[in-house]
């Protein structure tokens, strides 16, 4: 993958119906963006025709590249794989379902030099009722326990400094806690309101169990990491010989 200033990582799991529309929408952002930008698809073991369509996109446009995992490993692993393979100063993250728009990266870009993480928050969500309620419960619990000050940690529109992205620990489920993990490493976070859209193609990958129970347990795990994180600053040392 050629070097760039910004790599947009797009995890994909069974999103065959949205991929060509995703490229069209992403192309609009790329056309208006002055940064040298690449898009990296991470195929997370899709069982539909997603990989075939990703290959067609990448063959037709060198701005796009892909890696494909051996099997479905989950969103946190897919994001981590994208971070590991990016060759840029900044890393963007975008879901393939187009419930957030690639064009809204332009709202985040003005803050990317000042903060380690710039994240959108969906100020007018278009999700179904059960998803909105479960997110409200999970977000409220997370804010109370982690005190991270973030409204919408699950918003899939983010820009991170690559060196910070590679510092934060990734475990299963940690994609929900990127702001808190950045803060644990001493990083700074900025939230910006972004648009949110109804899902048109495909189906959501989450249900009540993995939207409330798993985030509840993962929040406690991140709290454990936060309380036991090792941090130090050297103020003086002997001259090198």
What do you see in this structure?
The N and C termini lie far apart (41 Å). The longest helix has 21 residues, at 208-228. 37% of the residues lie in helices and 17% in strands. The chain has 8 helices and 7 strands. The mean pLDDT is 89. The chain has one domain (6-228): Alpha-Beta Complex (Spore Coat Polysaccharide Biosynthesis Protein SpsA, Chain A), CATH 3.90.550. A 7-stranded mixed beta sheet has the order 3-2-1-4-6-5-7. The protein is globular, with a radius of gyration of 18 Å. The chain is of the alpha/beta class and 241 residues long.
Give the C-level CATH assignment.
Alpha Beta
H/E element sequence = EHEHEHEHEHEHHEH
Largest sheet: 7 strands, mixed
Shape type: globular
Read across the widest sheet, the strand sequence of neighbours is 3-2-1-4-6-5-7
Structural class: alpha/beta
Number of domains: 1
What is the number of E strands? 7
The helix tally amounts to 8
- What CATH calls the topology is Spore Coat Polysaccharide Biosynthesis Protein SpsA, Chain A
Annotated CATH architecture = Alpha-Beta Complex
Estimated radius of gyration: 18 Å
Mean pLDDT score: 89
Helical content stands at 25-40%
Distance from N terminus to C terminus (CA atoms, Å) equals 41 Å
| Percentage of residues in DSSP E strands | 15-25%
In the predicted model, the low-confidence regions spanning at least 5 consecutive residues are none
Task: Provide tags for this entry.
241 residues; 17% strand; globular; alpha/beta; Spore Coat Polysaccharide Biosynthesis Protein SpsA, Chain A; 7 strands; 8 helices
């Amino acid at each position: 993958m050629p070097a760039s200033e910004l790599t947009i990582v797009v995890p994909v799991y069974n999103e065959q119906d949205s991929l060509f529309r995703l490229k069209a929408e992403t192309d609009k952002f790329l056309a208006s963006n002055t940064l040298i930008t690449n898009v990296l698809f991470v195929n997370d073991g899709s069982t539909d025709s997603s990989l075939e369509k990703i290959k067609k996109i990448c063959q037709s446009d060198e701005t796009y590249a892909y890696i494909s995992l051996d099997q479905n490993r989950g969103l946190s692993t897919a994001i981590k794989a994208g971070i590991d393979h990016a060759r840029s100063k900044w890393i963007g993250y975008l879901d393939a379902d187009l419930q957030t728009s690639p064009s809204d990266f332009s709202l985040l870009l003005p803050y990317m030099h000042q903060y380690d993480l710039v994240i959108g928050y969906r100020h007018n969500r278009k999700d179904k009722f059960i998803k909105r309620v479960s997110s409200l419960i999970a977000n409220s619990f997370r804010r109370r326990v982690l005190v991270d000050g973030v409204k919408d940690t699950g918003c899939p529109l983010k820009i991170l400094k690559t060196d910070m992205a590679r510092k934060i620990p990734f475990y299963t489920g940690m994609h929900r806690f990127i702001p808190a993990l950045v803060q644990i490493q001493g990083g700074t976070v900025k939230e910006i309101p972004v648009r949110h859209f109804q899902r048109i193609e495909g189906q959501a990958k989450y249900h009540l169990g993995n939207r409330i129970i798993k985030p509840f347990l993962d929040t406690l795990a991140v709290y454990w990491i936060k309380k036991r994180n090792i941090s130090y600053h050297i103020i003086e040392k002997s001259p090198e010989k």
